[in-house]
Amino acid sequence: MKRNAKVSTAVIRRLPRYYRHLSELQRAGVVRISSSALGKSMGLTASQIRQDLFCFGEFGQQGYGYKVDSLKEEIGEILGINRGHTVVVMGTGNLGRAIIQNFQFSSNGFRLLAAFDVNPQVVGTKIAGVPVYHADELEAFVAAHPVSVGMLTVSISAAQSVCDRLVNAGVRGIWNFTNHELAISRENVVVESVHFSDSLLTLSYLISQQGETAEEREEELP
Amino acid sequence: MKRNAKVSTAVIRRLPRYYRHLSELQRAGVVRISSSALGKSMGLTASQIRQDLFCFGEFGQQGYGYKVDSLKEEIGEILGINRGHTVVVMGTGNLGRAIIQNFQFSSNGFRLLAAFDVNPQVVGTKIAGVPVYHADELEAFVAAHPVSVGMLTVSISAAQSVCDRLVNAGVRGIWNFTNHELAISRENVVVESVHFSDSLLTLSYLISQQGETAEEREEELP
DNA sequence: TAGATTGTTAATCGATTAACAATC
DNA sequence: TAGATTGTTAATCGATTAACAATC
After folding, report:
1. Which residues of chain B have pLDDT under 70?
2. Which of residues 108-137 of B touch strand D (CB under 7 A)?
3. Distance CA A74, CA A148 (A)
4. What CATH number is attached to the domain comprising B128?
5. Interface list for B 30-89 with A (CB within 8 A)
6. For residue A52, what is the domain's CATH number?
7. pLDDT 10s digits, B74-92
8. Is B186 left (phi over 0), alpha (psi -120 to 50) or beta?
9. Which residues span the domain enclosing B66?
10. Nucleic strand D near CB of residue A62 (< 7 Å)
11. Is B179 in Cβ contact with A20 (below 8 Å)?
């Protein structure tokens, strides 16, 4: 069953989508689904779904399909949702605060332990029940509590140094919201970045392009 | 020069990264760079960079490399940064507000025209200089001002209906921050989603996996 | 049982890498 | 000129799709 020697990033990136779609199906009361039905609703081929799942084991029943509940459970397991991961937030500016208040860490298997900032106005307060400590206390905190991931919502100028401190303190992953391309000193520390700019620029390309082709189409008219 | 008949999404996704790296190089005062140097700093092969650029034209000089300034300019052009794109924000909750206040729309070639909400406490106010109108006024606003993109930071339950309204009003792209997989009724309207959950779950997988392989390595020891 | 659908191998397709002539 | 590096075609690699026996 453990064949996941080398799972491609393409597959890994699809796992959360599977998880999300299965959750929606579950909420909608769907009990079973075939690879072709799931594929149609997600814009993937049935083959691809079966091939993806094949990396991790056998989760379906021939002639029947997949039980939504248990497939969701299995993919959650693969994603590490039940591993008791924890997270701390570095920087409680607008974005950090927004994510603390809005994002459901728990439904993604993470426990949000604390936030850190240098602003004396917020240090010592709580945001949505989460205590805010002074950034100086980071190392002591991580030594006392196992922290899986540090979320980076500091200014771009502070990004690298705060990242270094998190890595040295011993976190295993950085969830980066700054627009800085982080350099990681230590092996087996993973960075996952959410680049708003990259996303918007991609959209910019797509709508610009769309105009182009529309114009071209018009030119082709008699 | 216009060979970009069918540029793969893999290439398109790299364009913003090129743009970002070239901007950093520019800021650092670097004047010229070779494909191999750029590749090394971005973790790509020189071949891949030349192949990517080849989709769009010839931007370098044999024996010399690329001028950072002009390559950045060209990629910005490809991305549509100079097309006068505009954006409106739907939903001024924590996240919408945070992005309005923090995100540099202008340095990505977008002009942020307005925000919309239903909360009477914010309607009529300004956030970072951006006027907040009542959501009911959306259609009239879009009719009066060309709007390229609608940014969705409403609740997941309102996501689809607000999206539909944007699409019917005539925007050309949706920048989706809700965790809902949007259905688009109209052709040539593009959706680009920022899925925080998908990103965090990917990170969860990677750090969980990392533990696995570490354990396996230990088991292999004598 | 017959029909449906999986798990899994093989074939195809597309993206990445390598190679090298052109040329600055 | 000699050295460097591009633009571009060809080779390789990996991911997606197709096919089908196994089986529920």
Report:
1. 1-5, 211-222
2. none
3. 21
4. 3.40.50.720
5. 78-81, 83, 85
6. 1.10.10.10
7. 999 999 999 999 999 999 9
8. beta
9. 9-78
10. yes
11. yes
